Amino acid sequence: MTSGQAEGEMATMGIPVRGGERADDSTWSGWPAPETLLLCLIAFLALIGTSVVGLLIGTAS
Fold this sequence. Notes:
Elements: H1 34-60
């Protein structure tokens, strides 16, 4: 870390990272952003849904 960088800007070329520093000085928990979790949930449910539909079509024919 160079002398011109703040703690929340480590290894980002001086660009602040979302969640890198909090107003209440708490440490980042490591969880992804809520919209990322939502997208992963939608993708997971779509995968399960297509698998179930494929099994139903396979057993019906």
